[in-house]
Structure formats: C-alpha cells, structure tokens
Design a protein that fits this description.
Length: about 100
C-alpha cells in the first residue's frame, strides 16, 4: 500500500516504484475498498480499472462507504470525484493523500 504525502509521482519515488506500478497500487487499493463496500471482498483481485461501479451495486451511498474505507488508509476522494466517477480506474485517478497525514 502506498503512503500518503504528495503526488502519485512522488509517492512512486518514495517507495521506489515506477509511475505505472504506483498507478497499479492505487487501482488495487481502490479495488479492495470497492469490493469491501459491495460486500464482496473476495472479488477485489478480479476488479480491473475499467470495472463499472454500477456492476458491483455501488451507488452514491456506496461511494461514501468507499471514501470512508480509503480515508482509513490515508487517502481521500475529492467531493467532485464522488459525483463524476463511474469505474474503479476513475476513483484511482482521483485519489489524493488525506490531509494531515
């Protein structure tokens, strides 16, 4: 898991990952949170960046649950991302380090 504290590029350098690997880590983190929020934690590894949230039953309330799970890991989703995302990858692209971490 990546630690918060800057841009995705600085996070990648921080843990010695390429930007591609850092993006994959973020997708994995989001996939885990989405699967947990959907009550299907065992499916996290099978989710891809293009997996639609609606397929998993993630609605606006589910997105709030995903946001809470990500915040527990030191990441946050900006408010506008909660209104405009439709896939696991969209959420991963919107991730930002939580303030105060």
């Amino acid at each position: 898991m990546l630690t918060p504290g800057g841009s995705p590029q600085s996070a990648a350098r921080q843990v010695g990952l390429s930007e591609g690997a850092a993006a994959a880590e973020r997708i994995s983190l989001v996939a885990e949170a989405v699967a947990r929020a959907a009550g299907e934690a065992d499916r996290a590894e099978r989710l891809r960046s293009d997996t639609p949230l609606a397929v998993l039953g993630i609605d606006s309330l589910g997105l709030l649950c995903v946001a809470d799970l990500l915040e527990e890991s030191g990441w946050r989703l900006p408010d506008d991302a909660l209104r405009t995302t439709s896939t696991v990858g969209d959420l991963a692209d919107a991730l930002a380090p939580a303030e105060g971490r």
